[in-house]
Design brief:
Blueprint (H helix, E strand, L loop, with lengths): L1 H10 L8 H4 L10 H15 L1 E5 L12 H13 L1 E5 L2 H13 L2 H11 L17
Parallel strand pairs: 1-2
Helix pairs in contact: 3-4
Length: 130
């Protein structure tokens, strides 16, 4: 919400939130044609033009460990803009870690370097075939 308020203040443009988890039940994807699903998600992300991924916890974000999240991140990088945000408590933790344990930054960067959809979690194993 803070990000959206800042966006509106600095750009003068309204900020809208679309949360996919409220629009598509990921646990019922077998009822959707995979081609329709891929095309629809791709078009929605293209049309929106900006995705904000909330990376929490900052030192092991859930979004880099879930197949659906990785797919949405990929589409956002390929067809739109991707911004990464941290909730205030995570931002404070990151600041503290950088001041007291700077080596942890290297570990975090290595995590991002080792992201793999093959190793990501999925509620339905067939989701990894997308």
């Amino acid at each position: 919400i803070q990000y959206g308020e800042e966006h509106e203040r600095t750009t003068g443009r309204p900020f809208y939130i679309w949360m996919d988890m409220f629009n598509l039940n990921q646990f019922a994807t077998e009822s959707f044609d995979p081609n329709w699903l891929q095309e629809t998600f791709t078009n929605v992300i293209k049309d929106i033009g900006l995705t904000i991924s909330i990376m929490t916890p900052f030192d092991n974000p859930a979004a880099i460990n879930r197949v659906w999240c990785l797919w949405e991140l990929y589409l956002s990088i390929r067809y739109a803009k991707l911004h990464v945000a941290l909730p205030p408590d995570q931002s404070e933790r990151l600041d503290d870690v950088l001041l007291t344990e700077p080596y942890l930054l290297t570990t975090m960067l290595e995590q991002f370097d080792n992201i793999s959809a093959r190793n990501a979690d999925a509620f339905d194993p067939k989701d990894k075939d997308m």
